[in-house]
Amino acid sequence: MLTDFKNLPSESRIWIYQANRKLSDGEVEQIASKTKAFLEKWTAHGTDLEAGFEIKYQRFIVIGLNQSNASASGCSIDASVHFIQSLEKEFEVDLLDKMNVTYYNGDYIAHKPLNDFKKMVKNRSVSQNTVVFNNLVNTKAEYLEDWEVPLKDSWHGRFLA
C-alpha cells in the first residue's frame, strides 16, 4: 500500500539506495513511476505493506516502511532487492554497492569508491567537516536528522585517525 513518504511515522524503517551517478530528470520520473507501482503491490505474507518513498538529489532512492501495521519479511525484502536490481539493469546505474561514499564537494554531490575516499581523507582533500551521506540510518527519524552529517559525526569518521 503506497502512502506519502511525509506521512510515514518517524519510527518507520528506511532503506537508502545511492546511485553512482546523478540521474536525469527523465530517469527520476521513470524510477518514481516504477517505485510507486512496486510499493502499491508490496506485501509480506499476503499483508499489504504501508510504504512510501522519495528520490533525493537525483541520486538517492529512499524507501520507508511503517512497521506498526506489518513488518517486512525475508521474502518481501528479497522482492525489494530484486526490484532495485531491475532498476540497476534498466538504467545502467549502481544502487546496491555499499562500498561507495557520497558527499558534498561545495554545492556539488560527489561519489567515490570507499578506498578512494579513504585516500582523500588521508591527503586532507576532505575535512572532518565535509558533509557525507550516512546511508546506514535505520529509521525515518534518523534519516531526517542524521543522514547528512559532517564526516567527523558519521561512521566515515573512523578514517580521520
List keywords for this structure.
two-stranded antiparallel sheet; three-stranded antiparallel sheet; 2 domains; alpha+beta; 26% strand; 4 helices; ABC transporter ATPase; single chain; 161 residues
Total number of distinct structural domains: 2
Task: Order the strands across the largest sheet as they lie in space.
Answer: 1-5-4
Q: Give, in order, the helices and strands.
A: EHEEEEHEEHEHE
Number of strands: 9
The separation of the N and C termini measures 45 Å
The pLDDT mean sits at 93
Approximate helicity band = 25-40%
> Any idea what the shape is?
globular
What are the segments in which pLDDT stays under 50 over at least 5 consecutive residues? Answer: none
Protein name: ABC transporter ATPase
Summarize the structure.
With 161 residues, the protein is of the alpha+beta class. The chain has helices spanning 25-41, 74-91, 114-122, 140-146; strands at residues 13-18, 43-44, 47-48, 50-56, 60-66, 100-105, 108-113, 131-133, 148-150.
Notes on the protein architecture:
It is a single chain. The strands form 4 sheets. This protein has a 3-stranded antiparallel beta sheet with strand order 1-5-4, with helices on one face. Strands 2-3 form a two-stranded antiparallel ribbon. Helix 1 (25-41) runs antiparallel to helix 2. It folds into 2 domains: 5-91; 100-160, no CATH class. It has 4 helices and 9 strands. The protein is globular. The model has no long low-confidence stretch (mean pLDDT 93). Strand 4 (50-56) and strand 5 (60-66) form a beta hairpin. The chain is α+β, with helices and mostly antiparallel strands. This is ABC transporter ATPase. It comes from Constantimarinum furrinae.
